[in-house]
Amino acid sequence: MKIVIVGGVAAGMSAAARARRLAEDAQIVVLERGPHVSFAACGLPYHLSGEIADADDLLLHTPASLQSALGLDVRTHSEAVAIDRAARTVRVAGPQGEYDEPYDALLLAPGAVAVAPPLPGLDLPAVRTLRTVADAVALRERVDAGARRAVVLGAGFIGLEAVEALRHRGVDVDLVERAPQVLPPLDPELGALVAGELADHGVRVRTGVSATGVEEAPDGGMVVVLDDGSRLPADLVVLSVGVRPDSALAAAAGLDVDARGAIVVDAAQRTSDPHVWAAGDATAVVHAVTGARGPVPLAGPANRAGRTAADSMLGAEVASPPVLGTAVVRVMGLTAAVTGANAAMLADVEHHTLHLHGGHHAGFYPGAQAVHLVVHVGTDGRLLGAQAVGREGVDKRIDVIATAVRAGLRATDLADLELAYAPPYGAAKDPVNMAGFVAQNVLDGTLALWHARDLDAVRASALVLDVRGDAEWASGHLPEALHVPHTQLRDRLDEVVAAAAGRPVRVHCASGVRSYLAHRVLVAAGLDSASLSGGMQTLRAVHPDLDLVTDADRVPQPA
Amino acid sequence: MKIVIVGGVAAGMSAAARARRLAEDAQIVVLERGPHVSFAACGLPYHLSGEIADADDLLLHTPASLQSALGLDVRTHSEAVAIDRAARTVRVAGPQGEYDEPYDALLLAPGAVAVAPPLPGLDLPAVRTLRTVADAVALRERVDAGARRAVVLGAGFIGLEAVEALRHRGVDVDLVERAPQVLPPLDPELGALVAGELADHGVRVRTGVSATGVEEAPDGGMVVVLDDGSRLPADLVVLSVGVRPDSALAAAAGLDVDARGAIVVDAAQRTSDPHVWAAGDATAVVHAVTGARGPVPLAGPANRAGRTAADSMLGAEVASPPVLGTAVVRVMGLTAAVTGANAAMLADVEHHTLHLHGGHHAGFYPGAQAVHLVVHVGTDGRLLGAQAVGREGVDKRIDVIATAVRAGLRATDLADLELAYAPPYGAAKDPVNMAGFVAQNVLDGTLALWHARDLDAVRASALVLDVRGDAEWASGHLPEALHVPHTQLRDRLDEVVAAAAGRPVRVHCASGVRSYLAHRVLVAAGLDSASLSGGMQTLRAVHPDLDLVTDADRVPQPA
């Protein structure tokens, strides 16, 4: 058995190692066009930041270590330039020239390539992507040499990691994102929190604009020109506007490739040629929630797919799981994480959206930080996706929900999860449990929600009832709202009825907990009531420019 | 509808609040024999430690706040002393004397009481449990007043929290545990890690011994006498040897109570009387893995059961989920957590046990800490339980596995969980995923394990093969082991065959990763091989007194 693997990073190396463990006698050749195999691509931003001081620490294995540990024939600087599927050979351009390498089974794991828009100036030496060890080293050397102004183009995961790394080094950063918000995989109400954190750390966030080119400046630096006319001086530019599948070799060999350029594979990672498999960022995967097929460039699923491909090449009946797209990023002191479908992916699916702001641990134990959680729930109770932003415990909650989605749990089942509780770690009713309780209440009609995005319509047709305490009301409230603290609501129902004057009542508090209690009182009184999902916290994130009335005399002053 | 609830802490208050949200017009009376309702019982150790400076922060609600927010009639210092089930009344001993309170539905949520062994001296004023706010305040006042020597009786969750709190205050601590190890819910190989952490922080851990009494000492302090003859001087004693259901009221009323004294309830929390429900630490619950019925005193399930009881009292068809016993405790710098069944609970169940020591985040990112993970897997692949100990990321992994167990996932499904990965948060192959891969390999025969507990038998009948690197070998190895680093194994197979001389080969490395690779090479060479689960790390935890040969000349010295 002769296995040839094109690409020696995540999917390719996972496949090679798994194949060896299953087949000690197989001949396994790994062709890697770059200088390194098995390097820590996800660690590159942390070399730029200086946290990973030595770039060699990003090199997890060498061809020599892979030969001795796993008996792999790993060839770097060796590019697969063509496949002869009839002859079952790969044409390799290596350090000593070109040659044909025969295979019994071929795995294509070439990964993705950075998208480079057709803009003038992107070929300047101080414009880099952050995809290779050489990129990270080059960017770091420029910072070491005194670069003090950076422009990061693209506010996705890699772009934000680059921003963080550059700020960590004290570099002044402009962040440019074509979409209306940073980190577009997040729903807008959570993206706003990330944007706020960036601004708090001195990053100039410019959304809804694109670069039109990069020019050399008289001072030896550069100027990034935007389509709104802005001109941003820069000593270096990080290009992180996305990646696309590197499927040219597959397409040239006549293998099926989809409209977005991703190699088409079945669940066992087999391409349209029964002797050729593909795995990783170059392939189209199936989304676990939406069923959509397309590339999802993430390390975990790539490694998993490589393992599946090895099993399949060696004859096992296996299937890669559909992909949830679980991802996490650290942005200064915040963590943002996602799993499953977001609002954009659910644009055509009727569903409920729940907003919670529970503490990452018990409120009575010092240091509790809010986990800002958004959960999408099908009208049939299906758990569709979740996102969270906060300072502590965000990755844990998303991992729990990702496990629940993978297992096919319903949103209401989140109420029954029995999670580890002691005051430093969580709450007896964890935010994830609370999401389950809210889902139960929404699905069975105990709770009706209204949403921050519907504010204008609500203001036009309903009584807005603010049930927060006096100090919260004074610190900023909607000018037309009626204020009745929830603790006084039972005694002051007649005021509410009078103010509503037949209109629906749309109640809110700070986070949605007290307004739920108020909602139950209002419903029992026969009123048409709904409670604001996520309360004032979510309202302010969705409407950052909202005009609120403050009553400074009534706000308690710090002693 | 008139609801009377006996007990105003976890289950009772959850039920009261839920009942109000569902039934605005219900009359809801909560009878609490103590001075506080809805206090943070789990927070008591952190008042003793000083982390929660003000004991008032442990009081989450007052009767007045519960009246205004939820319309509850909460009566403290009011003990239910008898139930007349025929008349549907509760006899209450309150501040103004005794009276009968009628009910339509009665919920018993009296909780548990501390087990107090019949030993002389436990009535001394400086001997306290840690169950009430008064306990925490009293213990703290003694420390504030200069107590410097403490004996903690019982090394369960509360006992360890008390030890940590006392060490935090600089108090000298002897910890006494009747069982052979601290934290008996942990399997011994993980319990050893907790014991080591305690010892590293100056705690004198005394396992396998019991107190026989507490005596007053001439210096005004006390002496705790143990059954091994030890006499431990102490200024205060914390009694934390366990709790039992507080079911006297229920039993006296003729309700079904099991052999351990727990009130028998159905899944809807209903007792043997259709007008009486019970919830929380006083009841018997069903274990989700073993199916055993018994008390499991944990806050999360208690709150959940209170909610179920309220729903059921108000006519809904509901069921509390079976209980996994998920729990977590901080012990100095370590976290220990459990979910599902442990080895003791599986004594009569054939199963596999997996040991892993993966990093809590990517190894190339600085600061990775081992998550010492034990996973029990049925021979049919069922996920039975897991435990973990480590410095970071322990609660996250146990929460993920608790979710997987609750959802009925198989152990092999852990391989497919798509968890949030970025270098500061996890690994592309998380320790939980790795447990799934190992489970796959063990269940399909790709990997055969041997266990540290079988060391004697292995030494008597097999070749022990150590495949670690030279420096690891030199730092300590079994005297009779053959040393062949895994990177040299393919070239030196003849040495192994000769040394085995027909015996099985039992291979190990430090954690079990490299010995798995070696195992595959040995199997391909036709040898009878097995790999040590958890490697030398687990071996040393199970056999702390193991005589290892060190070769100091070959150990690299720190520069």
Automatic annotation (TrEMBL), chains A, B:
SMART domains: RHOD. Keywords: FAD, Flavoprotein, Oxidoreductase, Redox-active center, Transferase. Pfam families: Pyr_redox_2, Pyr_redox_dim, Rhodanese. InterPro entries: FAD-bd_OxRdtase, FAD/NAD-bd_sf, FAD/NAD-binding_dom, FAD/NAD-linked_Rdtase_dimer_sf, Pyr_nucl-diS_OxRdtase_dimer, Rhodanese-like_dom, Rhodanese-like_dom_sf. PANTHER family: NAD(P)H SULFUR OXIDOREDUCTASE (COA-DEPENDENT), PYRIDINE NUCLEOTIDE-DISULFIDE OXIDOREDUCTASE DOMAIN-CONTAINING. Belongs to the class-III pyridine nucleotide-disulfide oxidoreductase family. This is CoA-disulfide reductase.
